[in-house]
């Protein structure tokens, strides 16, 4: 019984500490993130620079802290975009069924079949490089998974008698979908959102690594990984630091999602 | 009796089955095959039969949860078979349904108060105070008090859930109520409470019931007239007492004799074979493969319904 | 407490207590029940949901979940089931005691052909091999009224109707000629006409094969139909034990009397049904006195404080009520 909660607690503590770091970075970083210092390039970790400095002598810890803003921002917006449209489309497909369902779900299949990173590359190269378009691309990529989960919940629940009961009372379809059914199918969607958050962060890192996401001099963990790789032999901690944080945030959200799913399983 | 409130004429409902092979046309479930009956204002009309006989489909078609394939439904003399939109919404005030699955018909994530106010909101009542007052005043109808309003369905016992289900139907002040197996999920002592409650409400609010059940004992107790269904058809219809004393159709006879504990075992008619399959009904009389009085004619000709005495009709070749 | 104990009883349950340990505390589900199942008899355990009848059945099979605690004895042909080792009880299950569940669709393995599921039981508990075993399976299937058993042998559960599935479940249960069959609401999921068939089959098995049956149901009609004697349970207690006809003609516990009046019968038409006020106490309620006292119309002061003992009213007729002798 107890064992299962472990992943929830691990997830919560990782995410909470990263979140705290993000909040602190809004007001305070040890050094200004763009402040360069020629004398201290590739400094190893020390009391002044706990995570060392980069090729311009900037403080890596400060940039990691600032970078967490990007990570959470991207994750939040992308999951909201994906979740909103995914749930809407999935609810319509599942509730109404028939040809509409077929059409929507084939479209979703097509989107899923298309490699996500490739889509984002195309999207960004058409609409321009930048954080806004990166987020939109990542959001669109996550629509199908939300749609599928929502649809299966709706298909199951629309046959329940409480839904028939609402129809018989004259409740409108829109209200039945979002006021009656949605609260009952929300739990798997929340799990998906948590998992989606981690994959959005990962996608942002990947796109920024490829130079298509966040533009310099704004810090992003993926970007830092990209910039540091040239110097990996010279200054390994500069590469390791953003790598560790990307791993942490992804792990954190996966643990959280797992934990929530376990919790729900037990409640049922 | 003061006139007909609901009439159903030759109601047919076929569902397509899921297509399993690309080139073969999918089969159909023949849930209703020409069902006709009329219910007088103020009476309790029972539809009884085994699972798959179409009784629930009949109820759901009348309340317009399902579209009939063919046939007509009249409510208070008006054809309601194909109405939509506002007129359908108005009809919802007059016809309501109580569901079998007491737990499933209440939204598990909502409080009793929300569940009870939803029908009022759906019918356009916007005033929060008015909704609140209506609910508080109506709780007394089902012998519950205000302490239940903030509870969730899983915090209620089976009998309390069914009371809320009944109140959810009554709150729009309907005239006609379809009760689809309202007590079959309840324990014996609670079943009696709910049946008595429904009877009392009928007197107080002058309701008409269509009572759907598989339990002949309960139907006989509750209803004035009973129709027995088999494979989407009404095989026998009569006043409750008449049906009990003088069952004509072999199927009715076997159903009555199968009520456990009511008859001596020696009189029991035990039907052979399985419950029928509505995707593939037999030729001729639908009951003939299991009938213990089967004749040659039954295998190829469908019997017509004939009146054996006043108000007692039966569809069987034994009564030409 | 003086109990009528026939020495020939197959199963003797004595002072059986079952409670479940949960995070929120210990909850008693069965409180000190004692009853006998004679050879070649059909004993009914009847009561409303939550009265402990199914838990009792699972205890006899030793199939209770890990958080259950039991005390008392369950004596089966001279051996105490409660104290048995896991290995011993496994040999007993399916061969000497077997069980039929309410929902045949979920009690059968959906991925195994039905014949194999009967075969499995013979394989575990008999020496039969190859064609002999196949022949026995077919014979058993024919015995339980399954038509064309050679063909049905190769069907999967979902290809059969509810009635046929329950016959398969019964075939599995009777395969090794058990001395005792526990049937937990075996007809509740079935239609009335199919129910009649299954009840007849169980009666035939009892008569021809000599297996005793514990038949669990909430339906008094069915219980009356099939049982030789009846144990009425309420809130974890046994409240009345009687031979079937005795119980129906002269019930002597207010709960039994109330239930009898609450069932719609031919002559109750047009009248108000008697209803027992209130609801069944929850498993979490602690009642020092008679469990039925809050709903009982005959209750008096003593019922609140003290749990009545069984009063012997006649041959094998006992009621747990202070007024048992006076109630008519």
Produce a short descriptive summary.
The complex is a heterotrimer of chains A (268), B (320) and C (328). Chain A is mainly α.
- The CATH class of the largest domain in chain C, by name, is Alpha Beta
Largest sheet of chain C: 8 strands, mixed
Helical percentage of chain C: 25-40%
Number of domains of chain B: 1
Average predicted confidence as pLDDT of chain B: 88
| Largest interface (CB < 8 Å) | B-C, 41 and 40 residues
- Strand order, largest beta sheet of chain C: 6-7-8-3-9-10-12-11
Sheet with the most strands, sense and barrel status of chain B: 8 strands, mixed
The CATH topology of chain B is Rossmann fold
**Beta-strand percentage of chain C?**
15-25%
SS-based class of chain C: alpha/beta
Element-by-element helix/strand order of chain C: EEEHEEHEHHHHHEHEHEEHHHEE
Shape of chain B: globular
Compute the number of helices of chain B: 9
Observed structural traits:
heterotrimer, B: 320 residues, 8-stranded mixed beta sheet, 4-stranded antiparallel beta sheet, 9 helices, 12 strands, globular, C: 328 residues, Rossmann fold, 12 helices, 24% strand
What does this structure look like?
The complex is a heterotrimer of chains A (268), B (320) and C (328). Chain A has 268 residues and is mainly alpha-helical. Chain A has a single domain (52-255), classed as MetI-like (MetI-like fold, Orthogonal Bundle). Chain A is built from 10 helices and no strands. Chain A has helices spanning 2-27, 60-96, 98-113, 116-127, 131-141, 143-157, 161-168, 173-209, 221-228, 236-267. Chain A is elongated. The two termini of chain A are 14 Å apart. Chain B is built from 9 helices and 12 strands. Chain B has helices at residues 55-62, 85-94, 112-122, 128-138, 158-170, 188-205, 216-222, 240-245, 250-257; strands at residues 4-16, 28-40, 44-48, 70-75, 78-79, 95-98, 176-180, 208-213, 225-230, 233-239, 305-309, 312-315. An 8-stranded mixed β-sheet of chain B has the order 6-7-8-3-9-10-12-11, sandwiched between helices. In chain B, strands 2-1-4-5 form a 4-stranded antiparallel β-sheet, with helices on one face. Chain B is globular and about 70 Å long. Chain B has a single domain (4-18, 27-315), classed as Rossmann fold (3-Layer(aba) Sandwich), CATH 3.40.50.300. In chain B, a hairpin with a 2-residue loop joins β9 and β10 (233-239). Chain B starts with a strand and ends in a 5-residue tail after the last strand. Chain C is an alpha/beta fold and 328 residues long. Chain C folds into 2 domains: 9-234, 3-Layer(aba) Sandwich (Rossmann fold), CATH 3.40.50; 262-328, no CATH class. Chain C has 12 helices and 12 strands. Chain C has helices at residues 53-61, 86-92, 104-107, 114-125, 130-143, 149-152, 162-174, 192-209, 220-226, 244-249, 254-262, 301-305; strands at 9-22, 25-38, 42-46, 68-76, 79-80, 97-100, 180-184, 212-217, 229-234, 237-243, 311-314, 317-319. In chain C, a hairpin with a 2-residue loop joins β9 (229-234) and β10. In chain C, α4 packs across α5, α4 (114-125) runs parallel beside α7 (162-174) and α7 runs parallel beside α8. Chain B binds chain C through residues 50-51, 157-160, 187-193, 195-196, 199, 214-218, 220-222, 240-241, 244, 254-255, 258-262, 265, 268, 270-271, 274-275, 290, and chain C through 48-49, 161-164, 191-197, 199-200, 218-225, 248, 258-259, 262-266, 268-269, 272-276, 279-280.
């Amino acid at each position: 019984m107890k064992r299962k909660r472990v992943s929830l607690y691990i997830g919560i503590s990782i995410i909470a500490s990263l979140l705290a770091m993000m909040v602190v970075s809004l007001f305070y970083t040890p050094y200004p993130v763009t402040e360069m210092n020629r004398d201290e390039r590739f400094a190893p970790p020390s009391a002044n620079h706990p995570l060392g400095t980069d090729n311009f002598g900037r403080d890596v810890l400060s940039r990691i802290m600032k970078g967490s803003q990007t990570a959470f921002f991207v994750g939040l917006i992308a999951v909201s975009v994906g979740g909103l449209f995914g749930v809407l489309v999935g609810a319509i497909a599942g509730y109404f069924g028939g040809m509409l369902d077929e059409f929507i779900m084939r479209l979703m299949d097509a989107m899923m079949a298309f490699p996500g990173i490739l889509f984002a590359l195309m999207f960004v190269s058409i609409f321009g490089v930048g954080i806004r378009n990166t987020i939109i691309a990542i959001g669109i990529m996550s629509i199908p998974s939300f749609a599928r989960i929502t649809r299966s919940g709706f298909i199951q629940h629309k046959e329940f008698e409480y839904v028939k009961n609402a129809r018989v009372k004259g409740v409108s379809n829109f209200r039945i979908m979002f006021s009656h059914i949605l609260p009952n199918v929300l739990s798997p969607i929340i799990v998906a959102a948590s998992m989606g958050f981690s994959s959005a962060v990962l996608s942002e890192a990947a796109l920024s690594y490829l130079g298509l996401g966040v533009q310099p001099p704004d810090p992003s963990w993926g970007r830092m990984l990209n910039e540091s790789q040239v110097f990996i032999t010279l200054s390994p901690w500069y590469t390791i630091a953003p790598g560790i944080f990307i791993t942490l945030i992804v792990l954190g959200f996966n643990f959280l999602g797992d934990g929530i799913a376990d919790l729900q399983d037990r409640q049922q | 009796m003061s006139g007909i409130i609901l009439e159903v004429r030759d109601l047919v409902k076929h569902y397509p089955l899921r297509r399993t092979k690309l080139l073969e046309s999918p089969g159909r479930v023949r849930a209703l095959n020409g069902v006709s009956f009329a219910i007088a204002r103020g009476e309790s009309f029972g539809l009884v039969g085994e699972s798959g006989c179409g009784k629930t489909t009949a109820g759901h078609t009348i309340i317009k949860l399902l579209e009939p394939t063919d046939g007509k439904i009249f409510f208070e003399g008006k054809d309601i078979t194909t109405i939509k939109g506002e007129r359908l919404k108005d009809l919802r005030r007059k016809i309501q349904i109580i569901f079998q699955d007491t737990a499933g018909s209440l939204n598990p994530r909502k409080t009793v108060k929300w569940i009870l106010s939803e029908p009022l909101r759906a019918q356009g009542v916007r005033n929060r105070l008015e909704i609140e007052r209506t609910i508080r005043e109506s709780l007394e109808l089902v012998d519950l008090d205000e302490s239940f309003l903030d509870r969730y369905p899983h915090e209620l016992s089976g009998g309390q859930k069914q009371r809320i289900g009944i109140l959810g139907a009554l709150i729009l002040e309907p005239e006609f109520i379809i009760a689809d197996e309202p007590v079959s999920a309840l324990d014996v002592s609670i079943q009696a409470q709910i049946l008595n409650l429904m009877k009392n409400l009928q007197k107080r609010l002058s309701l008409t019931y269509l009572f759907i059940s598989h339990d002949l004992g309960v139907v006989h107790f509750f209803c004035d007239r009973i129709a027995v269904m088999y494979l989407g058809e009404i095989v026998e219809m009569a006043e409750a007492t008449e049906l009990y004393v003088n069952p004509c159709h072999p199927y009715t006879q076997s159903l009555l004799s199968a009520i456990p504990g009511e008859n001596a075992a020696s009189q029991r008619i035990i039907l052979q074979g399985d419950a029928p399959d509505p995707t593939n009904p037999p030729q001729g009389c639908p009951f003939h493969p299991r009938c213990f009085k089967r004749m040659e004619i039954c295998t190829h000709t469908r019997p017509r319904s004939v009146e054996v005495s006043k108000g007692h009709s039966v569809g069987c070749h034994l009564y030409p | 407490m003086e109990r009528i104990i026939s020495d020939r009883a197959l199963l003797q349950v004595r002072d059986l207590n079952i409670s479940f340990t949960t995070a929120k505390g210990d909850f008693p589900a069965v409180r000190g029940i004692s009853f006998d199942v004679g050879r070649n008899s059909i004993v009914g355990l009847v009561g409303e949901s939550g009265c402990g009848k199914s838990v009792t059945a699972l205890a006899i099979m030793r199939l209770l979940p890990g958080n259950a605690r039991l005390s008392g004895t369950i004596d089966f042909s001279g051996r105490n089931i409660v104290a048995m080792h896991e290995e011993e009880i496994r040999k007993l299950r399916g061969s000497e005691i077997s069980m039929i569940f309410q929902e045949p669709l979920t009690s059968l393995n959906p991925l195994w052909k039905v014949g194999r599921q009967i075969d499995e039981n013979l394989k575990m508990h008999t020496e039969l091999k190859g064609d002999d075993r196949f022949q026995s399976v077919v014979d058993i299937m024919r015995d339980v009224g399954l038509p064309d058993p050679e063909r049905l042998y190769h069907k999967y559960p979902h290809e059969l109707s509810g009635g046929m599935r329950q016959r398969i479940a019964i075939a599995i249960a009777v395969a090794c000629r058990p001395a005792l069959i526990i049937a937990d609401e075996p007809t509740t999921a079935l239609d009335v006409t199919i129910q009649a068939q299954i009840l007849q089959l169980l009666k035939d098995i009892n008569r021809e094969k000599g297996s005793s049956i514990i038949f669990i149901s909430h339906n008094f009609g069915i219980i009356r139909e099939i049982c030789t004697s009846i144990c009425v349970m309420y809130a974890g207690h046994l409240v009345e034990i009687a031979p079937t006809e005795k119980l129906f003609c002269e019930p002597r516990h207010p709960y039994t009397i109330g239930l009898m009046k609450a069932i719609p019968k031919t002559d109750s038409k047009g009248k108000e049904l008697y209803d027992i006020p209130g609801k069944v106490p929850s498993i979490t309620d602690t009642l020092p006195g008679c469990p039925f006292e809050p709903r009982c119309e005959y209750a008096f002061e003593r019922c609140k404080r003290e749990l009545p003992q069984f009063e012997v009213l006649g041959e094998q007729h006992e009621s747990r009520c202070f007024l048992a002798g006076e109630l008519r």
